[in-house]
Write a structure and sequence with these properties.
Chain A is of the alpha/beta class. Chain A has nine helices and nine strands.
């Protein structure tokens, strides 16, 4: 329904795209919600990061990541060509600015499946275009069940993941919207609702000025 | 669906209500959309204005208006007890502040079916609580058809109404959201989507801080 409405609107009113950020502590459902949204809504695409880590078998350059070397990464940082970047286990990851800006200009939305640190950087550089959603688990026992279900980790590793999740959770107050993932279908409907409403924001409907002028000229 | 989701949320997370303003040039569907929303969603109520005009037969004091005299109205203005007010054909109309604030505190939303002048006053006094939606007609011939359908006005009166509508329309850019009423069911779904998303805003979910603290305490 949101996708349908959006398509009908596009016929009439030009729109600037938006950047939708989904963050959550690991295990709270962010990745499932992202996948469902990309499947359901042709108007939104996942941002493809650059990375200095080696390409793994099964990964496709340009789809999963843009694989680049450390020198190229350094140049991109210096030239301000990355909207956000981070170092994880000695490798660099970043979001190139140019494809995001091209998408926004053409009225396409971009999805970011990133943590609170990436979100803070995006917010500095793209405040008006950013729509940030934080996903919380309904309870810690529920989060633990989900973490146990998806991997055969030892109790010790699970405890460490839970402690990290509790820390990540403390950043909920930096987000525009908060969704509690009690039920994945309901949480998904809520994310779709947020996206559909944000597409109706006056400031994103860049064709409205012309539209109203045409209306007034019909008199 | 939004009402259902909202009820489930209320069980868990305390929420501050919001003030939903629907404005449009006359004939563009604002009143129909308001009626449909009040029928469909038990979480939102229409604001009841005070007025100095005489009670008409069929009107109920306290439901349609609070009927008060000019002196009482003057006192309310002086004491800052009105969120917005206006004079129309020699009579005064205004929105009392106290019931709105009580509703917001208890997590109930209030609907305002007012014009851009009232909206400007509300915005000054209640910026964070305000969610403003402007409804546009798809075309002027369409607006004219709707105006002709609902009354037996002369061509001259219709022309005057159309000119007024074109003026009112020029205030679209002061609103948070813009909905184009090409189809009443779609426009209604869009208003419901906006309301549902705004209820998920982090700043309105006043119980989140406690909720996250309880989560973290479960570790």
């Amino acid at each position: 329904m949101p996708a349908e409405r959006d398509r009908q609107h596009k016929d009439a009113i030009a729109r600037r795209g938006l950047m939708l950020v989904l963050s959550s502590p690991s295990g709270a459902g962010k990745t499932t919600l992202s996948r469902k949204l990309l499947e359901a809504d042709p108007g939104i695409e996942l941002s493809v990061s650059v990375t200095t880590r080696k390409q793994r078998s099964g990964e496709i350059d340009g789809r999963d990541y843009h694989f680049i070397d450390a020198q190229r990464f350094e140049t991109m940082v210096k030239r301000g060509e990355l909207l956000e970047w981070a170092q994880v286990f000695g490798h660099h990851y970043g979001t190139p600015r140019a494809p995001v800006e091209a998408a926004l200009l053409s009225g396409h939305d971009i999805l970011f499946d990133i943590d609170w640190q990436g979100t803070q950087q995006l917010r500095e550089k793209a405040d008006h275009d950013l729509v940030s959603v934080f996903v919380l688990p309904p309870s810690m026992p529920d989060l633990e069940r989900r973490l146990r279900r998806r991997a055969q980790d030892s109790d010790e590793v699970i405890r460490a993941r839970m402690a990290t999740a509790a820390e990540e959770m403390s950043h909920w107050a930096e987000y525009d919207y908060v969704v509690i993932n009690t039920d994945i279908d309901r949480a998904f409907a809520e994310v779709q609702t947020i996206l559909a409403a944000e597409r109706l924001k006056r400031e994103r409907q860049t064709g409205l000025s012309d539209f109203v002028r045409r209306l007034q000229a019909q008199l």
